Amino acid sequence: MSVKSWFMKRKTQWLATFSRFPLATSLLVLIVLFTIMTIHSEGDSDYMNQALSAGLGVLMLVSIQLFSEIKPLNKLVTWIIKGSSLILPLLYYFYLRQAPMGYNQSGQIRTMVLYFTLAVLLIAVPTLHHKISFSDSLILTIKAFFSSLLISVILFIGISAIFSAYTTLIYELDYRWFAYSAAIVFQFIAPVYFLSRLPLFKETEHTEALDEAKSIPSLLEILIAYIIIPVLLVFSAILIAYILTNISGDFWQDNLMEPMLISYTIVGIVTLFLAENVDKKIARLFSRFYPYLLLVIAIFQTVSSSLKTADFGLTHGRYFVLLFGIFSIVSVLIYSFLTSKKFFIPFFLICLGVLSILPVIDAVSIGVRNQVNTINDLVAPYIEDDSVATPLDSELTNEEKARFSYSMNYLNQQEQLDRLDWLPEDFSYYQDFETVFGFDSSYHYYYADDRDISGPSGPRYAFISLDTTEPIVFSTEGIDEVVEVATFQVSDRDIQLNQEPYRIEMNTENENLTIALLENDTVLLEQDLSELSDTAWEQSGTNPERPLSEMQLTTEDENYRLTIIVKRLEIQENEFMDGEFILLISYD
């Protein structure tokens, strides 16, 4: 094919795409303009809310167009539906003005869920065509996405190379030229190319273009059959072994397992659908037996997440974890026992997504209400005259203090502390928490409950640091040398001081750490910091920040004085003691 023929074909294809998705491509142009204006203003003006709202409009308009091709509607009705659908992005723009993405987690969460839900809808709509399964739609979407991504990356690299050459050889271009080109390539050219790769989904027609679009590429087939499936099976074996060996202990409280299990089930469900079109024996066996394994793991994950919810209450994050657990179980049951209803799985996910952002029953609203109730239940016995009458440090158990600080931290992140009527009006979370309640706001990070959990465990670890929430003030009267040093800087080397022949020697070995003041080879003063290790172990599991009075050690004789202020001390049992220090040295 000649270059001219190639360009003419692309021109025809793009004109057809513009004609097929006129409103969607118009919104893409708007998104690019909003981004360029933001770049041009260098942050003085932010049009992110407008761009995000327009992006939602694009996803909705494309889905409506695909639906209208599968289930033909009157042209006027189709345009009315498309026009009406633009109300949602407009309303969402006004919502984002009240809950900006940069400061409000509610806005961030709803935006992410909306984008995810509409993306799933875009993939699911073609399954309404009687000749297209969800696995077919998934494959054609993957092909279109990676084709557009490859084209866009190569195009952007080429444009960047041209700009770089021009800047180097002729005239220096502003850095914003690169950002402008990125916006045009990735926010307009890439999406339009993606849309151009979507075939016409006419229920009354079965075209060669449709067959070509849903055919699985040989490379993807090899990746699924010989890489993804074997890796997933080996990972499953390791996961099952871990669950069986820790089923009475660590598994139910291991926070690292939760995101791992969620990621695992997501990959597992997607791989199941992709494997349907792979004509290999291993793929057929995988599709037959793997759903039962996935079902067992999904049940374990949901039960584990429920136990964690019982410990610290429900938050929006836990809400989504439990919601996804329900989706995993239901979808695997449908896949395994109701194979004729598999098309319902993505629509079930869409319903759960919409449910999670509806007012009153959305993830954030339920999370806030749950945490407010948790806090009120904990402090109710100690409230007099609409305020806490006594420091809670002496009233609550360690577990209750951990739950209290966790819930307070969550409400502070959601900017919902005003829901607690008994809090002082001028209460400042970071400045007043410890003064009002008697313990640190980060208590839940350091608290380790005393439940007997079996299973493998590593060396004990302890950490303390100087409290820097207030300015550190100390006297330097009579001080001749000030040295700031960390163990990683020294590595058993001497520190030469300004006044010869004095030097500092730091020795670290396992859990022993000493700092000595020497004159030539004579030790004048020596301070063993190992005595601070008891303090570190005592504070392990609670607030590690200690006041200056507890982090300052002094050793002296009639001629010399060595004061050590410990900024940070960290201990790994039977392995090391590490830290950062300020040394104040006086001679004579």
TrEMBL record:
Segments passing through the bilayer: 21-41, 47-64, 76-95, 107-128, 149-171, 177-195, 223-244, 256-277, 289-307, 319-338, 343-361
Chaperone recorded as keyword: no
Keyword NADP: no
Pfam families in UniProt: DUF4153
Keywords noted in UniProt: Membrane, Transmembrane, Transmembrane helix
Domain of life: Bacteria
Protein name, UniProt field: DUF4153 domain-containing protein
Top-level taxonomy: Bacteria, Bacillati, Bacillota, Bacilli, Lactobacillales
